[in-house]
Amino acid sequence: MSTFIEIPEKTVFKTRRFNIRPLSLSDVTKVEMYVRDIRLARSSGTIPHPLTPDFVKDFIEKSMSDETSLDAWGIEYEESGRADLIGVVSLNRLDRSQSEIAYWVIPAIWNTGVATEAVKAFIEFNPQDCKTIFGSVFQDNPASSRVLINAGFEYIGEAESFSVARSAMVTTWTYIKKLD
Question: Which CATH superfamily is domain 3-178 in?
Fold first, then answer.
Protein backbone atom coordinates (compact mmCIF):
# COMPACT_ATOMS: atom_id res chain seq x y z
CA MET A 1 0.00 0.00 0.00
CA SER A 2 1.23 3.49 -0.84
CA THR A 3 0.86 6.58 1.31
CA PHE A 4 1.43 10.29 0.88
CA ILE A 5 3.24 12.32 3.52
CA GLU A 6 2.91 16.08 3.34
CA ILE A 7 5.92 18.00 4.59
CA PRO A 8 6.00 21.79 4.11
CA GLU A 9 7.10 22.40 0.51
CA LYS A 10 7.79 18.69 0.02
CA THR A 11 5.68 15.62 -0.65
CA VAL A 12 7.06 12.13 -0.13
CA PHE A 13 5.25 9.18 -1.64
CA LYS A 14 6.01 5.98 0.29
CA THR A 15 5.70 2.50 -1.16
CA ARG A 16 6.46 -0.84 0.44
CA ARG A 17 10.15 -0.71 -0.55
CA PHE A 18 11.04 2.93 -1.11
CA ASN A 19 10.11 6.61 -1.10
CA ILE A 20 9.55 8.81 -4.11
CA ARG A 21 10.50 12.39 -3.31
CA PRO A 22 11.34 15.57 -5.21
CA LEU A 23 14.94 15.84 -6.31
CA SER A 24 17.01 18.56 -4.69
CA LEU A 25 20.41 20.09 -5.32
CA SER A 26 21.82 17.84 -2.60
CA ASP A 27 21.24 14.94 -5.05
CA VAL A 28 23.55 16.32 -7.76
CA THR A 29 26.67 14.35 -6.78
CA LYS A 30 24.83 11.03 -6.40
CA VAL A 31 22.88 11.41 -9.64
CA GLU A 32 26.06 12.42 -11.50
CA MET A 33 27.83 9.32 -10.21
CA TYR A 34 25.06 7.09 -11.54
CA VAL A 35 24.40 8.72 -14.92
CA ARG A 36 28.08 8.63 -15.84
CA ASP A 37 27.43 4.92 -16.44
CA ILE A 38 27.27 4.40 -20.21
CA ARG A 39 24.46 1.84 -19.73
CA LEU A 40 22.19 4.48 -18.19
CA ALA A 41 23.16 7.15 -20.69
CA ARG A 42 22.51 4.85 -23.68
CA SER A 43 19.08 3.88 -22.35
CA SER A 44 18.05 7.54 -22.08
CA GLY A 45 17.42 9.94 -24.88
CA THR A 46 18.68 12.95 -22.94
CA ILE A 47 21.68 11.93 -20.83
CA PRO A 48 24.96 12.78 -22.61
CA HIS A 49 27.99 10.52 -22.52
CA PRO A 50 30.49 11.61 -21.53
CA LEU A 51 28.52 13.65 -19.02
CA THR A 52 28.73 17.37 -19.64
CA PRO A 53 29.47 19.85 -16.83
CA ASP A 54 26.34 21.02 -15.00
CA PHE A 55 24.01 18.64 -16.90
CA VAL A 56 22.62 17.08 -13.71
CA LYS A 57 22.55 20.35 -11.77
CA ASP A 58 20.67 22.05 -14.62
CA PHE A 59 18.21 19.11 -14.87
CA ILE A 60 17.47 19.21 -11.14
CA GLU A 61 17.16 23.00 -11.07
CA LYS A 62 14.77 22.86 -14.00
CA SER A 63 12.63 20.26 -12.21
CA MET A 64 12.54 22.46 -9.09
CA SER A 65 11.35 25.54 -10.99
CA ASP A 66 7.71 26.62 -10.91
CA GLU A 67 8.10 27.67 -14.55
CA THR A 68 8.79 24.22 -15.98
CA SER A 69 6.86 21.34 -17.51
CA LEU A 70 9.24 18.84 -15.86
CA ASP A 71 8.67 17.05 -12.56
CA ALA A 72 11.62 14.87 -11.55
CA TRP A 73 11.57 12.73 -8.43
CA GLY A 74 14.13 10.54 -6.74
CA ILE A 75 13.49 6.90 -5.99
CA GLU A 76 14.97 6.38 -2.55
CA TYR A 77 15.50 3.02 -0.89
CA GLU A 78 15.24 3.14 2.88
CA GLU A 79 16.93 0.56 5.11
CA SER A 80 17.82 0.73 8.79
CA GLY A 81 16.97 4.43 8.91
CA ARG A 82 19.35 5.23 6.05
CA ALA A 83 18.03 6.40 2.69
CA ASP A 84 19.88 5.89 -0.58
CA LEU A 85 18.91 7.32 -3.97
CA ILE A 86 18.56 4.45 -6.47
CA GLY A 87 16.88 6.08 -9.45
CA VAL A 88 14.82 8.88 -10.93
CA VAL A 89 11.32 9.01 -12.37
CA SER A 90 9.98 12.07 -14.17
CA LEU A 91 7.01 13.47 -16.03
CA ASN A 92 7.26 16.05 -18.76
CA ARG A 93 3.98 17.91 -19.23
CA LEU A 94 2.77 18.01 -22.81
CA ASP A 95 -0.65 19.49 -23.59
CA ARG A 96 -4.30 18.42 -23.14
CA SER A 97 -3.62 16.79 -19.73
CA GLN A 98 -0.93 14.56 -21.22
CA SER A 99 2.58 13.85 -19.94
CA GLU A 100 5.54 11.72 -20.94
CA ILE A 101 7.19 9.50 -18.36
CA ALA A 102 10.90 8.72 -18.14
CA TYR A 103 12.75 6.69 -15.52
CA TRP A 104 15.96 4.93 -14.64
CA VAL A 105 17.24 2.85 -11.76
CA ILE A 106 20.83 1.91 -10.96
CA PRO A 107 22.11 -1.18 -12.80
CA ALA A 108 22.74 -3.01 -9.49
CA ILE A 109 18.96 -3.38 -9.08
CA TRP A 110 17.93 -4.03 -12.67
CA ASN A 111 15.46 -6.92 -13.02
CA THR A 112 14.28 -6.70 -9.39
CA GLY A 113 10.90 -5.08 -10.06
CA VAL A 114 11.90 -1.76 -8.50
CA ALA A 115 11.47 0.22 -11.73
CA THR A 116 8.00 -1.24 -12.30
CA GLU A 117 6.99 -0.57 -8.70
CA ALA A 118 8.29 3.01 -8.93
CA VAL A 119 6.49 3.70 -12.22
CA LYS A 120 3.22 2.27 -10.86
CA ALA A 121 3.53 4.34 -7.68
CA PHE A 122 4.43 7.49 -9.58
CA ILE A 123 1.41 7.05 -11.83
CA GLU A 124 -0.80 6.59 -8.77
CA PHE A 125 0.75 9.73 -7.26
CA ASN A 126 0.35 11.60 -10.61
CA PRO A 127 1.91 14.93 -9.54
CA GLN A 128 0.82 16.58 -12.80
CA ASP A 129 -2.76 15.32 -12.54
CA CYS A 130 -2.55 14.13 -16.13
CA LYS A 131 -5.16 12.00 -17.87
CA THR A 132 -2.83 10.29 -20.33
CA ILE A 133 0.79 9.27 -19.97
CA PHE A 134 3.07 8.31 -22.83
CA GLY A 135 6.33 6.44 -22.58
CA SER A 136 8.85 5.38 -25.15
CA VAL A 137 11.84 3.09 -24.92
CA PHE A 138 14.65 2.24 -27.27
CA GLN A 139 14.00 -1.09 -28.95
CA ASP A 140 17.36 -2.44 -27.78
CA ASN A 141 16.14 -2.01 -24.17
CA PRO A 142 13.36 -4.62 -23.79
CA ALA A 143 13.59 -4.49 -19.97
CA SER A 144 12.29 -0.89 -20.03
CA SER A 145 9.52 -2.03 -22.33
CA ARG A 146 8.51 -4.68 -19.77
CA VAL A 147 8.43 -1.99 -17.05
CA LEU A 148 5.83 -0.02 -18.99
CA ILE A 149 3.79 -3.10 -19.93
CA ASN A 150 3.84 -4.34 -16.32
CA ALA A 151 2.72 -0.87 -15.19
CA GLY A 152 -0.37 -1.13 -17.42
CA PHE A 153 0.79 0.74 -20.53
CA GLU A 154 -0.42 -0.37 -23.96
CA TYR A 155 1.80 -0.52 -27.03
CA ILE A 156 0.80 2.00 -29.71
CA GLY A 157 3.61 1.85 -32.27
CA GLU A 158 7.15 2.46 -33.37
CA ALA A 159 8.93 5.74 -33.81
CA GLU A 160 12.44 7.16 -33.72
CA SER A 161 14.00 9.36 -31.10
CA PHE A 162 17.37 11.06 -30.82
CA SER A 163 19.80 9.67 -28.27
CA VAL A 164 22.27 12.27 -27.02
CA ALA A 165 24.67 9.60 -25.69
CA ARG A 166 24.64 7.74 -29.02
CA SER A 167 24.48 10.90 -31.11
CA ALA A 168 22.02 9.13 -33.39
CA MET A 169 18.38 8.48 -34.07
CA VAL A 170 17.26 5.23 -32.44
CA THR A 171 14.11 3.19 -33.11
CA THR A 172 11.66 3.20 -30.19
CA TRP A 173 8.52 1.48 -29.01
CA THR A 174 5.84 3.88 -27.80
CA TYR A 175 3.27 3.14 -25.07
CA ILE A 176 0.24 4.88 -23.60
CA LYS A 177 -1.66 4.71 -20.33
CA LYS A 178 -5.02 6.41 -19.95
CA LEU A 179 -5.88 7.37 -16.38
CA ASP A 180 -9.57 8.28 -16.88
Answer: Gcn5-related N-acetyltransferase (GNAT) (3.40.630.30)
